[in-house]
Design a protein that fits this description.
It contains nine helices and 31 strands. The chain is 9% helix and 32% strand. Strands 13, 14, 16, 17, 18, 20, 21, 22, 23 and 24 form a ten-stranded antiparallel beta sheet that branches. Strands 8-7-12-11-10-9 form a six-stranded mixed beta sheet, with no helix packed on it. Strands 2, 3, 4, 5 and 6 form a five-stranded antiparallel beta sheet that branches. It starts with a helix and ends in an 8-residue tail after the last strand. Bound molecules: MU-OXO-diiron (FEO) and calcium ion (CA) (3 copies). The site of MU-OXO-diiron has 7 residues, from loops.
Amino acid sequence: RAQSGGSSSGLTFTPVRLDDTDRIIVPPGYKSEILIRWGDPLFLEPATGFDIDAQTAEKQARQFGYNCDYLGFIPLAPNRALLIANHEYTNPELMFRGYDDKNPTKEQVDVELQAHGVSVVHIERHPTRGWRYTLGAWHNRRITGTTPMRFTGPAAGHPWMRTSEDPSGYTVLGTLNNCAAGITPWGTVMTCEENFHQYFANNDKVADKEKQAVHKRYGFPGGASERKWERYHKRFDLAQEPNEGFRFGWVVEFDPLDPGSLPRKHTALGRFKHEATSTVIAKDGRAVVYMGDDERFEYVYRFVSDGRYDPNNREANMRLMESGTLFVAKFNDDGTGRWLPLVAGQGPLTAANGFPTQAEVCINTRRAADLVGATRMDRPEDIEVHPQSGVVYAVMTNNSQRGTSGKPGVDAANPRPQNRHGHIIEIIPDGDHAAATFRWRFLMICGDPAKDKGTYFAGFDQSLVSPISSPDNITFDRRGNLWISTDGQTSSFKKNDGVYAVPVSGPERGYNRQFLSAVPGAECASLIFSDNDDTLFVSIQHPAEGTTLENASSRFPDGKEPRPAVIFIRKEDGGTIGS
Ligand code: FEO
Ligand code: CA
Ligand code: CA
Ligand code: CA
């Protein structure tokens, strides 16, 4: 047996088990601590501390937002880094005492707008106390549902992008439903707008039937929204502002090193319920971005820039996402696959079919992907490229409707009817990330092997693996092991979500083991290692979801009100996570 205590993967921790108690559980020899919670102040003068009964929009704009999802770690110096955290959505029933979902107040709606977006938080590692965030640090930044941003690419300025607040079609306020994201090789953040449809109302009253049909394809409600923001902000009422809905559903790039920089929504990367941006450089220097559209029967995408990455010209790299070619994946039954270009004028993407220019392809990307015959997947979530092998890992979280009445049946890449537990696909590029073709195979078909038929753990002995359901976000440790956080075990297993580690090569390939168990109602939304792998950061999103503040099912993290939070896990002996 090889290195690190007899394990080729270096993973020697004692696995934890599925659990349903209201505490974070990690293996023996590890400890978990709180880094930052919803409402913690980011700025001084004044430092707006958290009081759940005295919350205002003004305070929220200066505090860590709600429902932390994606986590990024950007090292600045030894023991100093920036933590990037997305704030995907809000749970007003857990944020406001006595919340009335039929009659939210304007103040509540405005707090929610400020609780969305992204936080950039300076963090420091102390020799003994672990990581602390730095109140008032120069880099600290909040991007919210009202932060000004601008559009780039083929759809910028298009007539469908113009509104009464922005007759140019080049600027927009805010980013919403930021789920997964990624950090580019040039050090910017590319964050993804996922379920943006939920903020808009009254598609049934949109006069232009063509626009209405596009909105319907993206799931906008016909009548009132659940959140009722349209009562106080007319831009969320499609009857009054039919185009505002086209201004969400994009990838947003911003520079975390410049808190004053203007974020940009890149229309060349297409419009869908974006999940993940994983950016790598092709052999010829073009930037390649892998992306998913997280809804049942939607697609996996890839963008290839026109321009080439220049390691010595960060300014030029920051324009790479402004032009390029968008592709959508076709997974063939024989284990091969092809990236189908989505280019106006090519194949079925004609003016007669609604695609006179590339702008329409960018705005109505889902329809373009339908027409070229891409493979309809089981909810693509995170996609990451293995840092050593270059294999692309694509997570299909679950799809309970696969093969049910009136819905698409199984195919080779989505092989399980009513796929409740999800699966992970390995995409192996044919020589290069910019190549037209690839091969693919499964890493895992998830579930509890003791109970579910058809689970698969890359051929590893299934009696030894930890049960896992609804994989969502993934990352790699420095040894190349895959780490997975889950979103959905509270319904599929009736147990808390968790974090898992699985080797993807060597004799332990497929040996999936549970590392962490979260708290009731929460998903483990994202996870990221520190630069030396001695710390794992995990976002605990929506603790107590499904209950209300008055009868909350979780009191994480402080034994009081439930508050979404980022935690960090270290070994008590300071060693590498997983050992
Ligand atoms: Fe927000 Fe697709 O998870
Ligand atoms: Ca996700
Ligand atoms: Ca990830
Ligand atoms: Ca999810």
